[in-house]
Predict the 3D structure of the following.
Amino acid sequence: MSIAPVLRAAAGGITRRQVPTVVVFVVLAASTAAALVGVTLLTNANELFYNAVATQHGADLAVTVDAAQASPAQLAATRRAAGVTQAAGPYPAASVTLAVSGRGGMSIPGLSVVGRARRSGPLDDLTLNQGQWATLPGEIDLAIYQPLHVPIGSTVTVTSAPGKPMLTVVGYAGSVVRDEDAWVTPAEVAALRGRAAAGSAQMLYTFRSAGTGAQISADLAAVRHVLPARAVTGSVSWLPSAGQTSAEQSVNTAYVVAFALIGLALAVLIVATVVSGAVLAGYQRIGVLKSIGFTPAQVAVSYLAQLGGPAVAGCAAGAALGNYWVLPELNNSAGAFHVAHQTVPLWINVTVPLGMCLLAGLAALVPALRAGRLSATAALAARQPPQTGHGYGAHRLASRLALLPRPVSIGLAAPFSRPARSAATLAVISFGLAAVVLAVGLDGSLARVNGSAAEGAGQVQVDPGGGQATFNASQQRAITATLRAEPGAQRYLAEADLVPFPGARRTVSVPGVGVVPVTAYDGPAGWLNWPLVSGRWYRGPGEVDADSAFLSQSGLAVGDRVTLRLGGRAIRARIVGQVFDLAGTGLLTSWRTLGGAAAGLAAAQYDIGLRAGTSPARYAATLARALGGGVFVGLPRSGAPGFGLVDTSYLRLLTVLMAVLAGLGVLNSVLLVTRERVHDLGVFKAVGMTPRQTLAMVTCWVVVPAIGAALLALPGGMLIQDVTVRALAADIGLPLPGQFIHVYGAMQLLLLALAGLGIAAAGALLPAGWAAAARTSTALRAE
Amino acid sequence: MRVVDPLVSVSQVTKRYPGGQAALAELSLDVRRGEAVAVMGPSGSGKSTLLNLIAGLDKPTSGTVTVAGQRVDALTETGLARFRRRRIGMIFQFFNLLDDLTVADNVLLPAQLAGTARSQARATMTGLLDQLGIAQHRNAYPGRLSGGERQRVAIARALVNSPAVLLADEPTGALDSATGETIGRLLLELNRGGQTLILVTHSPELAARYAGRVVRLVDGRITSDAVTSPPAAAGARQ
């Protein structure tokens, strides 16, 4: 087969059809870039984490030990415990509450501060992300992943420590296994220990086997075995950090795969439509090529070659664009993990663009072969695609819609005259809209999950200060009096937190489970809106709600009875609901279930609900001023592990890409119809249709496909979102409340349906404008 | 004797297409109300270009075109569309009907675009279909009609807004001679009823039989302009 004439014919086709050529280029560039970003993100997350664990000598287990219970010699002996391969420490440690000046007294309790003279060590090299390492008394480095973010150089108050010392934030650092929240000099730790907290020390270990939860439990037991009973007060393994990375990867996998499939489908659809459109619009050209001696294969190859140039260029440009988008993210991740700068692996840079080219070739093959098989005489005689007589009924019906202007009713009926083209347009809009629906739903679910940390806590909280675990009677009287006096509070209640921390006066245990955290509310607490996975909120004494971790640990379910042991008493209660909670809340019940103040319960926190329109931050600041010192007023913490790590910027980038691709698909489709109907457009204009009426008519061509697409894409996108969010929840092992999955409101769905119409209209406007501006005499001459 | 202003006035018009010779060269032509003018000439002489300029489908490179007192060459695209609706009816060689609209909807279209009241438009359409003998096909689609029937539909569509000028570009060119004869007679009857008619044709017979004035064009210039019978002045349409 002589290739020169084929290439010349292809070049002629490209020159004649510049817009479809540009559309193929842009579509393949955008879809290749999206695929490259997706594949790179998927392969990058785990690789970076394990790389960082290796280079930073990440510990398998960090153990907190009560220094009063274990001597330095006993701690040193743990280095020889069964399975230990390496150990570091002891590092002095303390659990503190930090408050920030100038933020309405906002305070963060339970932060783990460790005294480290140097960042590096035999285990757990710390990475300095910003600022400098704390080497002087009064300096502190905060962990980048803890919730307190203040500018370097600002001061924080250690409210839990005697004398409430102030520390200057000199930097932000990170541990790959995330076992600490802040670091100070070893000498500083002693000053930060509250009266209630005994001296603590942190030991770091690596083990021969530490890949699973069971292995970590065995390793911890080996360490405990060497130490006196009750010496170990806490432990953090590397598995949650790995799990968090894995959860991030899982959710990224879920949505990146969903978007990649939608993007590929769009690319295939659009490429196939462009080539089949070129075949349909080029009937006469095919006839001429065949009449001058082109074989069917040469005709097919000339149509494939028309696509080849823009496709290859588009895939190459897409690969470059994908690298440009993803490299900053790779370097950010590398920076966060403190590993060498990353590049997109060569295999991704080769296989993704090649794969997209191949896909485009396959999409173009069928219409190209069809062009090759066309009879020369039939093609020359027809000059235009044969009319099939479709759409008569629709036009007849549309002509009866007297309320609509005639150009609009003709435009609405037009898609029925070309059902195949309209189906392709509908499919393109459907995929684009489904991507938007998925993105909006994912965003909504993530927002609700992240916001859940703030639910069940009131809009403003009051905590005791000065190292106190609970409020004393005079503080409680002052707080309640102030809450009644200050406008803005709609309701409030006190809660007792029976948390199993060292030295706690009251703890609750459950047979077969051990000590469990319990929150008891002194009053109706339904308004705190704890998200419920199943069941209901407790209605009175004798009923409890449990979090998923407790149910999983105890093997109990909603409806079962549970026995709580408090101070030697056995309290029978029924589990009436399962709450969604990522912070390990345990059990939630009424103050009276546990026996109230008579049983030694004391308020450890006040939760305040505000009147509508009251600013929580402003109210918190006012309340803090009114209450004076001794207590801390703050806003609840937000952010949820696992879900919070979803990269929403890429989610948005991919959504915009899909919407643009869909718009280009519509543009291409409408352009083809405009070309096929150019003569009809000339007739419309000859009988008096104005440019504005022409614009309206052509734009209305996409309304019916857009409505069809909305009917398909709304449930389709919601289904994909449902599957994606459930997959994410399954990955982090937490069932989600329905309200976190079904996030679409009626108004939002209406707006999404209109978004489909918007995508369609945006794609149709350009060719509609061309149609409106076309010279009538030229259009009438065109065939 | 009453002085009659020309309904159509083409003055010193030149039309040049990009990269080509002038299709019309400083051509001037006046057509009075009620006249039936046949424009004849060989292929490429500029007949269809002249018709397109009068219809406002195209604009002259220089010169002026005035129809019913309106400067067509100075109108915007929107103005031209409105001008065509109100002043011009066009008939084409290949009918140019819209295949997916019924006969009735094809005829109604210009009236609907012009915003004519629905009842009035339907009454006019029904009257025209009756007058042209195609009322029985009102719900048929153009693809199922004969060539002559299609051209009658095109004539009905051209007349639905009562245009000042009826322009016909080779109206019998795609028809057999018997059907062509029928269409020719129909156009003659319309002209006798006062309809101003400008007809482009290759056929000297058609021109001689159905037009009162024959204008010959060669290379974009008028080579002859002869009146063969007086115009149908009585009852001239506006």
User: Anything to note?
Assistant: Chain B is about 35% helix and 25% strand. Residues 10 and 65 of chain B are 5 Å apart (CA to CA). The beta strands of chain B are 6-16, 22-32, 36-40, 62-67, 70-71, 88-91, 165-169, 196-200, 213-218, 221-227. Confidence is low (pLDDT under 50) at residues 233-238 of chain B.
